[in-house]
Write a structure and sequence with these properties.
The complex is a heterotrimer.
Chain A lengths: L7 E5 L8 H12 L3 E4 L6 H10 L4 E6 L4 H14 L6 E6 L6 H6 L4 E4 L4 H16 L10
Parallel strand pairs in A: 1-2, 1-3, 3-4, 4-5
Helix pairs in contact in A: 2-3
Chain B lengths: L2 H15 L3 H13 L1 H11 L7 E6 L6 H14 L4 E7 L8 E3 L14 E7 L11 H11 L3 E5 L9 H5 L2 E6 L4 H14 L2 E4 L7 H14 L10 E3 L8 H18 L1 H29 L3 H11 L5 H11 L1
Parallel strand pairs in B: 1-5, 1-6, 2-4, 2-5, 6-7, 7-8
Helix pairs in contact in B: 1-2, 2-3, 2-5, 4-9
Chain C lengths: L48 H4 L23 E6 L4 H13 L4 E4 L3 H4 L23 H7 L10 E3 L5 H14 L9 E3 L4 H7 L6 H18 L3 E2 L1 E4 L1 H6 L3 H21 L4 H4 L3 E7 L3 H22 L5 H4 L3 E5 L11 H15 L4 E3 L12 H17 L13 H23 L3 H7 L1 H18 L29 H14 L3 H16 L6 H9 L4 H12 L9
Parallel strand pairs in C: 1-2, 1-9, 2-3, 3-4, 4-5, 6-7, 7-8, 8-9
Helix pairs in contact in C: 2-4, 4-5, 5-20, 7-9, 9-11, 9-15, 11-13, 11-15, 13-14, 19-20, 19-21
């Protein structure tokens, strides 16, 4: 029987944009969905975010971006994660991201994009699906037996 | 254990032994989620020859513990020491989730390869630490850190676990808090090896410091060590070097007085009992549904059967 | 929150939340004030209009700051604008003026707001993105090319770097041939709300407040037509404060700045008239209007009673009003036009001097030319067709609105008292209590929308499936950052290195001396073509940078 452990999520605000209402709301929502959420605070560089994800052994990195610079910032964070050997970390993005940009973000490896007004349930369920989906290949949880 | 878990464990151990942070990070996750794996892990990674001092920071919420930890880390890094940080925040009793925000205050160390910060949720621990904290400290020790800083949850009342997990306890207080005095009455006073009055520039800082000294003067000493009272403004890195100097003096005192050894024995005793209780608890969970065991329990409680027979029965049932 | 063994700390505002209402659907205002179904003459028994309202244009200004309000002076129709390079913004400004805009709000990019140059790695990807890059005096001149700075009134959301903006603005005017005494405009210069909500802070609170004071002080002495401060409530509301809380926090912040300048030996009547405010308006327009009226009355009384101001201009709460963007939905964006119109009603029934409304598509992107225009026209429709502007304070004497105005004032006073009790706003900010309250409330509000307790048309009721991708969207120029970097590098090659270095050294010396106003040394550095980033670095070297409490 597999023992479940809380999913660990790093919620980060890359770049200079300081509007963190959305980030703080999602931190609380994921906490209430049973996840352990590490909030990095504002003004994070892609290197800092990757290093936090590494030390915290994060299953997921959630990026909150309202500055319009989501393409460049997601690309940079994913690049840094790969550089740290963290290819398997699930990257999701949220903020003011227009539908037309979503395919580009997904092509670079962002697994999900959540705009303003996304339901907490949907976000939590998508994260669970990605983490446990990934667990089937290379993110196992420990076996209690 | 299935193949995937084995693969993850093996990869973690390999990376750990190669000195890679990712290995430490993964093994922490493993021992935290699956304590039964811990024995196997520890017997394989071995021990570090580097002497290590473990320092706990406790105190009421808002005292500035994270900021102080960050500031002290800067002092330690200037001395060339390698620092592991464990920051504990509470698990929500409703959802089992947690918000881990302490590291925000430690941002200046994010990219320093000589500092490793790990946030832990209490996951049911009620003494200000999580049940895995001691194992996490052991992993960090084995990884070669010479200083480990442990920041407790900070509810202020029931944080006695920290005493059993670390060598030196720093109790962090702030001047304006009537809370702080309450907290001290509630037992923080007894566990402090060093007192830090943070945000000491606030109104009443000086008075608070003297009141604290006076209270300490009245209190009974645990031993020859007199806990010093230090003032800091951790957000400006004021006083942190003095805090570290006091902690180092305490470390020397522990070694020279033999108390280090006494504490180590006490700690081991407590850990042994904790492990035994945890083991017993798990066995009992599996057995208690059965009628014959419920009956035995009733008889033990009513003193008709000795507890030693009860323990033996459980041991034999394995 | 989850620290079960400690008693929960009371929040700064303890209003009933809809969640606790036994009946499920609670009738409460946006700020959580519970409403009876009906108000009657009993509601206002003992209520004295002479004391509570007075005459329009007179103390306590409940009915408005001018005697004849919009009949003589329609509100200023403002819009946020500014992106890309100086030329892009300049062209946009000229276009907007042609379309009925009477005031400019200049949006500045994030690196500039943070005191970083366009080529700083910390701001990579963000130069020219959410506003125009103002890396140097040259950029400022490009923005205002052909726009006379003594005639237009520009308002700019610069805070941590407001002092650099002022220096660039004054020198750009000088090159247009105008003395500082002629320039008009407003700089936000409100750093405390950055710590509380907007996150664009640079230095720790205390040196930051000094810089705010330096700007105000310099303008008192040299630029009397320029508004050196506009204190904002909007960002706190966006971060999760209720409408009432946001205004109370804003008034608390304003008093910190006022005290800072008075401390330097100026009289309250020299300082207070320079203050203007920016408060939010919501679709819940009766409350938006009532809270605005309450804020006016409260500010007047604070200034007269507490500060002993004698000059009526000190009592006046001059305010611009901005629509609450968190109410706008990404779903069915055209619905937002209705919300924007209600925002405009809330602002103007409240007696605002100037109204800034979002574009209907701002919930997911920068606005397009078409959405810009629709918002401008919505304002013009309220102004020219609704009749709101035809009489002074149309809601005066309404049982409901006067009751709400009184409740609101009481609530704001209670919040101000609690902030004073914890040791003032700076201490509150450093401890993070206000930020925590706001984050918790924002989460609760989102939950109420998601579980339907709070209606949001098109989101949790009357949902219509729309085809995706039918919206025209603004496309930002991907090259804008690169071009800005090239310009900056060209600029750096043309400067006199000795003079420049000396001006920056002098700035650092001045910064170390508490008694010196930093506007003159910054102006000298700008004259020597120091960039915004170089000035920011010099100040960071002296003041350090700020790290916030976790806020959750």
């Amino acid at each position: 029987m597999e023992r479940s452990r809380p999913i660990r999520v790093v919620v980060a605000k890359p770049g200079l944009d300081g509007h963190d209402r959305g980030a703080k709301v999602i931190v609380q929502a994921l906490r209430d969905a049973g996840m352990e959420v590490i909030y990095t605070g504002l003004h994070q560089t892609p290197q800092q975010i990757a290093r936090v994800a590494l030390q915290e052994d994060a299953d997921v990195v959630g990026l909150s971006i309202l500055s319009g610079a989501h393409e460049a910032l997601c690309q940079a964070v994913i690049g840094e994660l790969r550089g740290q050997g963290l290819e398997e970390v699930v990257v999701i993005a949220g903020g003011t991201i227009h539908a037309k940009d979503v395919p580009k973000l997904k092509a670079m490896g962002v697994k999900e994009v959540f705009g303003a007004g996304s339901k907490f349930e949907d976000v939590a369920r998508a994260i669970e699906a990605h983490v446990h989906g990934a667990a089937a290949t290379d993110r196992p949880v420990a076996d209690a037996g | 254990m299935d193949n995937r878990a084995t693969a993850r464990l093996e990869a973690g151990i390999r990376q750990f032994q190669a000195g890679r942070d990712s290995g430490l990070a993964r093994l922490i996750t493993l021992v935290e989620s699956s304590p039964e794996l811990a024995d196997g892990v520890f017997s394989r990674i071995g021990e570090s020859s580097v002497p290590c001092h473990v320092i706990g920071f406790t105190g009421p919420p808002g005292a500035g513990k994270s900021t102080l930890v960050s500031s002290v880390t800067t002092v330690l890094r200037d001395e060339g020491r390698r620092v592991g940080i464990v920051a504990v925040d509470p698990t929500s009793p409703f959802s089992g989730g947690a918000m881990l925000g302490d590291r925000i205050r430690m941002e200046r160390h994010y990219l320093d390869p000589g500092v490793f910060i790990r946030s832990l949720a209490t996951r049911g621990g009620i003494g200000g630490l999580s049940p895995a904290t001691k194992d996490v400290i052991k992993l960090m020790r084995a990884f070669g850190f010479d200083t480990i800083l442990v920041e407790t949850v900070g509810v202020g009342q029931t944080e006695l676990d920290v005493m059993a997990a670390v060598d030196t306890v720093a109790v962090v207080l702030v001047p304006e808090a009537g809370d702080s005095i309450q907290a001290m009455k509630a037992g923080l006073m007894e566990i402090a090896d060093v007192f830090v009055v943070n945000k000491a520039d606030r109104p009443g800082g000086r008075e608070f410091k003297s009141a604290l000294r006076a209270m300490l003067g009245l209190a009974q000493q645990r031993g020859p060590w007199e806990p010093p009272v230090l003032a800091t403004q951790a957000d400006r890195d004021v006083g942190s070097a003095e805090v570290m100097a006091a902690i180092n003096r305490h470390a020397r005192y522990l070694r020279e007085s033999g108390e280090l050894e006494i504490r180590r024995l006490l700690r081991e005793e407590r850990e042994l009992l904790d492990m035994a209780f945890a083991h017993l608890g798990n066995r009992w969970k599996a057995l208690k549904g059965r009628p014959e065991w419920a009956e035995l329990a009733t008889r033990v409680i009513s003193r008709r059967v000795g507890v030693d027979r009860f323990l033996k029965a459980i041991a034999d049932s394995a | 929150m989850t620290r079960t063994t400690s008693s929960p700390k009371p929040g700064l505002s303890e209003m009933e939340s809809a969640e606790n209402s036994p009946s499920g659907r609670a009738f409460v205002t946006r700020s959580g004030i519970e409403l009876p179904a009906e108000f009657t003459p009993e509601t206002l028994r003992g209520w004295d209009p002479a004391q509570k309202l007075g005459e329009p244009g007179k103390y306590p200004y409940t009915r408005g700051i001018h005697a004849d309000m919009y009949r003589k002076r329609p509100w200023t129709i403002r819009h946020n604008a500014g992106f890309g390079s100086g030329e892009d913004t300049n062209a946009l400004f000229k276009y907007l003026f042609k379309n009925g805009l009477t005031g400019l709000n200049l949006a500045v990019d994030l690196p500039t707001q943070m005191g970083l140059d366009a080529d700083d790695p910390r701001g990579q990807f963000e130069a020219g993105r959410v506003g125009v890059a103002l890396s140097s005096l040259e950029d400022m001149e490009r923005v205002y090319d052909g726009i006379p700075l003594d005639q237009v009134s520009t308002s700019t959301a610069m805070n941590g770097m407001a002092i650099v903006f002022l220096a660039q603005y004054v020198l750009a005017a000088e090159r247009q041939g105008m003395p500082p005494s002629a320039i008009r405009g407003t700089v936000q210069n409100d750093i405390l709300k950055e710590f509380l909500a907007r996150g664009t802070y640079i230095f720790p609170p205390r040196p930051s407040i000094r810089l705010v004071g330096d700007v105000i002080e310099w303008c008192i002495n040299h630029a009397p037509k320029f508004n050196p401060i506009s204190v904002s409530a909007c960002h706190m509301q966006q971060a999760g404060a209720t409408h009432i809380q946001s205004i109370a926090y804003c008034l608390a912040n304003a008093q910190v700045y006022l005290d800072e300048v008075i401390r330097r030996g100026y009289s309250v009547d020299q300082v207070a008239p320079l203050f203007s405010f920016l408060i939010p308006t919501t679709a819940y327009f009766f409350e938006a209007a009532a809270n605005h009226r309450a804020a006016r009355r409260l500010w007047a009384s604070l200034l007269k009673e507490r500060y002993g101001a004698k000059d009526p201009r000190s009592w006046v709460f001059r305010a611009a009003t901005a629509g609450d963007q968190t109410e706008l939905t990404a779903a069915q964006p055209l619905n937002n036009l209705a919300r924007i119109t209600l925002h405009c009603l809330g602002a103007t029934l409240g007696g605002s001097q100037s109204v800034i409304l979002a574009a209907y598509d701002e919930a997911y992107d920068l606005p397009t030319e078409k959405s810009f225009r629709a918002t401008l026209m919505a304002q013009n429709i309220v102004l020219r067709e609704s009749g709101v502007a035809d009489v002074v304070d149309p809601l005066a004497g309404s049982y409901y609105v006067e009751w709400l105005t009184d409740r609101s004032e009481q609530e704001m006073r209670a919040i101000l008292q609690r902030i004073a009790d914890v040791g003032g706003m700076v201490t509150a900010i450093e401890s993070g209590i206000v930020q925590k309250d706001m984050a918790r409330q924002a989460y609760q509000e989102e939950r109420h929308i998601q579980n339907g307790q709070k209606s949001r048309v098109g989101v949790n009721c009357l949902v219509v499936e729309e085809e995706e991708g039918e919206q025209e969207t603004f496309s930002s120029d991907p090259d804008v950052g690169r071009r800005q970097v090239e310009r900056l590098q060209a600029l750096r090659r043309q400067r006199h290195p000795g003079r420049l270095a000396e001006s920056l050294e002098e700035l650092k010396r001045a910064a170390q001396d508490q008694g010196r106003n930093l506007v003159p040394p910054i102006m000298e550095a700008v004259r020597c073509m120091a960039t915004t980033g170089e000035i920011g670095t010099a100040l960071r070297d002296v003041f350090g940078t700020y790290k916030p409490p976790s806020g959750i």
